[in-house]
TrEMBL record:
Subunit and interaction comment: Homodimer.
NCBIfam families: HTH_metalloreg
Full protein name: HTH-type transcriptional regulator CmtR
Pfam entry (one): HTH_5
PANTHER family for this protein: HTH-TYPE TRANSCRIPTIONAL REGULATOR CMTR, TRANSCRIPTIONAL REGULATOR-RELATED
Length: 111
């Protein structure tokens, strides 16, 4: 039986997290600054319930963390290097071919 290397598992988890446009928008928003879920939902134009599901996915993937902030919870990227990775990935993809779309873009799978 073939054992998957930990690096491959991490990259696959990151890819699954990025597979949904809302999760991408959440990550890009949190790259700018930490935010409370209600503020993120308003900013992204999605329901709080839907955003909560995506935040749970991103949290389970280890990409974001929930930080107690008084009576509220603030979300932020789990590591500042993720922001740099998102910037690098975005610019690399745009540099290759910005007019391409993924044939599986409708896949709504979660981590």
């Amino acid at each position: 039986m073939l054992t998957v290397a930990p690096d491959i598992e991490v990259l696959a988890r990151f890819g699954r997290a990025l597979a949904d446009p809302i999760r991408c928008r959440v990550l890009l928003a949190l790259r700018e600054a930490p935010a409370h879920p209600a503020d993120l939902a308003d900013r992204l134009g999605v329901s709080r319930t839907r955003l909560s599901n995506h935040l749970a996915c991103l949290r389970d993937c280890g990409l974001v963390v929930a930080v107690p902030d008084g009576r509220r919870t603030r979300y932020e990227l789990a590591d500042e290097r993720l922001g740099h990775a998102l910037d690098d990935l975005r610019t690399a993809v745009l540099a290759v071919e910005a007019d391409r779309t993924c044939p599986d873009a409708d896949d709504k799978g979660c981590c």
